[in-house]
Design goal:
six-stranded parallel sheet, 3 domains, Rossmann fold
Length: 331
């Protein structure tokens, strides 16, 4: 955590008066365009966020924690959010939630809005952010916890798992089961940890002389309809595919549905594997082979580490929850 950047700091760095900075922040047209652009550049570089709370309110204790997650449609993040909420409530704090839809610019805009109300802490997904977001987080004095991914260097704290190791473990298992022609279906455009798993899965296959059939055949948000449609497209291009890995369990269940509709024997005619370990995927007639992640525990630990940091208790900078390979009956 850093000392909070103030309006006075910005004025000093920009070489202008505090009143000028205040006018730029308020959008006052009396400031020349040249000066405005200069001050705005300094504001961006310093990660300064104007305080919308006036006077005594600005000094009041806040019990709000900013939480930015990519999706509430994805069942993974509903579990994470449940853990965050449970953990924060124990300390008398409440989450204020923003949904970024895997859009870094939207994450940045929501963070700026939330920071202007002076939250007690920030919890947000993954380690990839815009430069402006990173600057704001690096310059805030409140705790920052990045969740789900631990593969890089966190801004402050992080809680999650090694996605590349998880993908490699799944690839090894499928190869050990004797499969040789592999497909992979998932959304790589904006979901950075899903993209990392895809790369790691593919790289692991290549170490054994295998590859992916039609790796670019489908790139869409991984829900159940997309999983069904993606498999249909994959099989039309590569009908001899033996095993398909999905970027999450929800999409994988869409693939299972397609197999049932086509009369294909799951595991024998086509193996299907997922990621995340959703309960409903384990309730299928043939439980899904997948990687189970401790999503709720990740959320609870992120919240607990916020409370520890706020109370001055030492906190482990990086917490790895690991993962578990579930050897289901789909692969």
């Amino acid at each position: 955590m850093a000392n909070r950047t103030t309006l006075k700091d910005v004025a000093r760095a920009a070489g202008v008066s505090q009143m000028t900075v205040s006018r730029v922040v308020r959008g006052d047209t009396v400031v020349s365009l040249r000066t405005r652009e200069h001050v705005e550049r300094v504001i961006g570089n310093m990660g300064y966020v104007p305080n919308k709370l006036a006077g005594s309110l600005a000094r009041a204790h806040s019990n709000q924690v900013a939480v930015l997650i990519p999706s509430l449609v994805n069942n993974v993040y509903t579990s994470v959010l449940a853990g965050i909420t449970e953990g924060l409530e124990r300390g008398g704090y409440n989450p204020v939630v923003g949904v970024t839809e895997y859009d870094l610019q939207k994450e940045e805009a929501q963070l700026i809005s939330m920071m202007s109300w002076r939250p007690a802490a920030v919890i947000l997904a993954n380690l990839v952010h815009t430069d402006r977001t990173r600057s704001i987080l690096e310059n805030t004095p409140v705790p920052v916890v990045e969740i789900m991914d631990i593969s890089g260097d966190p801004i402050d704290l992080c809680v999650g798992l090694d996605h590349e190791a998880a993908a490699a473990t799944l690839a090894d298992y499928l190869m050990e089961r004797g499969y040789r022609r592999f497909g992979y279906l998932g959304w790589q455009t904006n979901d950075f940890v899903a993209a990392a798993r895809f790369r790691a899965f593919r790289a692991r296959l290549e170490t054994r002389g295998y590859g992916l059939v039609a790796p670019d055949v489908y790139d869409a948000p991984p829900d159940m309809p997309a999983g069904k449609k993606g498999l249909e497209m994959l099989l039309s291009v590569a009908p001899k595919t033996e095993a398909v890995a999905y970027s999450n369990d929800t999409a994988a269940m869409g693939g299972v549905n397609l197999c049932l509709e086509l009369g294909m024997r799951i595991q024998d005619d086509l193996a299907i594997a997922g990621f995340s370990g959703l309960r409903m995927a384990q309730c299928l007639p043939q439980p899904l082979t997948t990687i189970r992640t401790r999503r709720r525990d990740i959320g609870k630990t992120a919240a607990r580490n916020v409370l520890k940091r706020l109370s001055g208790t030492p906190v482990e900078r990086k917490v790895d929850f690991g993962f578990e390979l579930l050897k289901g009956q789909s692969a």
